[in-house]
Amino acid sequence: MMETRKARVIDDVRLEYLLAGPQGGETLLFVHGLGANLRQFEPQREFFDREFQVLLVSLRGHGGSSAPARPTPAAYTVGRLARDLAALLSYLQIERVHMIGNSLGGLVGYEMLKLAPERLISLTTFGTTAELHASRLLLWSQLGLIRLLGPRGMAWLVSRTASRDKAVAAQVGRMFRRASRDALARITRDIADYDYTRIIRRSQLPMLLMRGALDREINARLASTLEAMRGKPGSDVVDLPHAGHFANMEQPKAFNECLRGFLHSVASAGK
After folding, report:
1. What are phi and psi for residue 194, nearest 5 degrees?
2. Domains in the chain, ordered, with CATH?
3. ∠ CA 58-147-141 to the nearest 5 degrees?
4. Is the dihedral of CA 244, 249, 252, 255 positive or negative?
């Protein structure tokens, strides 16, 4: 059972977080996808907290984190989520992190790269594309599902569709039950149309993109992301066979070893 804490980072929002591992060393910040929470990264906390300080966090409106009392569209932008994390790092007196984000968490990483690049040592994404322009029909169908089903209904749906691994899908479903309807709907609207490829091209930050072979919907939309990363020193793209959208849960051993190798390469390059 993970023992989490909460920090008031801004106004009425309190973020649930877990901080483990040795102090004074480099910190790994893991950020979950839409509907999930910090429990998505328990396998990584167990693997990395002997070598690194590990910070897991539930974004506002997810898991044990609170939701804004007055949920406006501005309260759930990716930029707002990134500023929450920057405030949490300040609260914890952590200057810089290796950030690892899944799906929405990867977008928050790109936003951090834009708003506070000095906070990042490296950025790892998986299940994330840096550019997306969803059709109005797709957006409204997604919002309609959220309004109709709510968190409990969405939990039931994702527990059957999120992964070929039934245990992983069931766990994702349990996490969805703890997400707020407003968070699911407003964030879905905010991330329907974006482009971070220019930010990637301009950055010199080491980046790793892990691509789950079974994550076909995201993989079909990665062309501009891969082009933006091509030839960047210190960056890499790694394929994970048998992994889908939740690669860290579906193939934790391969995921952990891949991430550890990248982190060690970043450290070696910095010496």
Report:
1. -160, 165
2. 5-133+194-269 (3.40.50.1820)
3. 100
4. positive
* Inter-CA distances, 69 with 5, 57, 66, 74, Å: 20, 20, 9, 13
pTM assigned to the model:
0.97
Retrieve residue 62's tokens.
């997810």
Output the 3-class SS for 18-70: EEECCCCCCEEEEECCCCCCHHHHHHHHHHHCCCCEEEEEECCCCCCCCCCCC
What is the residue whose two structure tokens read 């989490």? 4
Quick one: which of 103, 104, 98 has its CA closest to 119? 98
- 150-164 pLDDT tens trace: 999 999 999 999 999
Q: What is the pLDDT of residue 39?
A: 97
Residue 216 confidence (pLDDT): 96
Q: On the CB side of 150, how many CA atoms lie within 13 Å of its CA? A: 2
- Alpha carbon 192 to its chain centroid, in Å, reads 16
| Spatial separation of the C-alpha atoms in residues 153 and 173, rounded to whole Å | 9
> For 168-190, what is each residue's pLDDT tens digit?
999 999 999 999 999 999 999 99
- The values of phi and psi at residue 27, to 5°, are -110, 135
Query: How many helices (H) and strands (E) are present in the chain, helices listed first?
Result: 11, 10
The label of the residue with tokens 């000095």 reads 118
Q: Which residue in this structure is represented by tokens 């483990």?
A: 20
Q: Is the pLDDT of residue 69 over 90?
A: no
